[in-house]
Predict the 3D structure of the following.
Amino acid sequence: MDPTEQQINDMFTYHAPTQGQIERMQEIRERFRNLALLLHYNCPKSRELSLALTKLQEANMMANAAIAIHEKASGSQNIGESSTTVNKAYGVDLPQGFTYKD
């Protein structure tokens, strides 16, 4: 589906994050950094490692962009109901107060 003109404008507009968004973005960034370090110390230095690190960097940026762009546009947070689901399914410990929506 092609983006609308408004969606394109949103993509290329600065969206100053709120304090709550900044905290969540920092948490996301920290988890990506930890995964990047895990790969750095456990994978041979190679083209594939370089690409994996690049993809992590891209995923981190897109995750934070999703928060900045779409929460501002919609005025809501789609964070969810219960962190138990994600903790059990993926072994992920979410920060206190954070939840995951199925």
Observations:
- The radius of gyration is 16 Å.
- Residues 80-86 have pLDDT under 50 and may be disordered.
- The chain has one domain: 17-90.
- The longest helix spans residues 47-74.
